[in-house]
Amino acid sequence: MFTGIVQAKCEILAIEKKPGLNTLEVALPPALREGLEIGASVANNGVCLTVTQLADDRAFFDVMEETLAVTNLVGLRVGDKVNIERSLKFGTELGGHILSGHVHTQAQLVHLDISDSHYNMQLEVAEEWLKYIFYKGFIGINGCSLTVGEVKGNRFMLHLIPETLRLTNLEDYREGDWLNIEIDSQTQTIVDTVERVLAQRHLA
């Protein structure tokens, strides 16, 4: 489990591509390497990956074919930076909202509105996911716990503060790029439960 509070944006040092499998070598600062062991879970752009190998300055992660098919990890290149968060420990302050590290879909960045006073991103998502996205609700974007702004049609807004831009890779994205989306699990449970109850009443 994760909090959606990104700890660092870390550089991709190498990518080994095999049929149906990519191995990422990700640079990790000393603070994030401390106590890290093979088999540990680490979120990369919001995707829960398992540490398969450790070196002095990096960790290795295998990305399977299914993960490559549904996340933006497939488009990574050497030199890109990914949002990194180590798994939640008991007693850790929860500053964001609970994330599982299981990305549901991707959203395309369709518009950027940047000025001295604001940094706004408008994302477009497949219609099937809109029922889980609400104004002022929580959403995971590349592993970042964020609050949803205006929702209109199949698009929604994000209003980013300077601290979020400093700590994450969201500022690196341009119009046309794709970002990983994890919807809020509580919202999904409520919506699905209400739909099921209403369907049962309709059939009764």
TrEMBL record:
One of its GO terms (molecular function) is riboflavin synthase activity. One of its GO terms (cellular component) is cytosol. Its EC number is 2.5.1.9. InterPro entries: ATP_synth_asu-like_sf (IPR023366), Lumazine-bd (IPR001783), Lumazine-bd_dom (IPR026017), Riboflavin_synthase-like_b-brl (IPR017938). Pathway: Cofactor biosynthesis; riboflavin biosynthesis; riboflavin from 2-hydroxy-3-oxobutyl phosphate and 5-amino-6-(D-ribitylamino)uracil: step 2/2. CDD domains: Riboflavin_synthase_like. It comes from the Bacteria. Residues 1-97, 98-194 form the Lumazine-binding domain. It catalyses: 2 6,7-dimethyl-8-(1-D-ribityl)lumazine + H(+) = 5-amino-6-(D-ribitylamino)uracil + riboflavin. One of its GO terms (biological process) is riboflavin biosynthetic process. Keywords: Repeat, Riboflavin biosynthesis, Transferase. Lumazine-binding repeats lie at residues 1-97, 98-194. Catalyzes the dismutation of two molecules of 6,7-dimethyl-8-ribityllumazine, resulting in the formation of riboflavin and 5-amino-6-(D-ribitylamino)uracil. This is Riboflavin synthase. It comes from Shewanella algae. The lineage of its organism: Bacteria, Pseudomonadati, Pseudomonadota, Gammaproteobacteria, Alteromonadales.
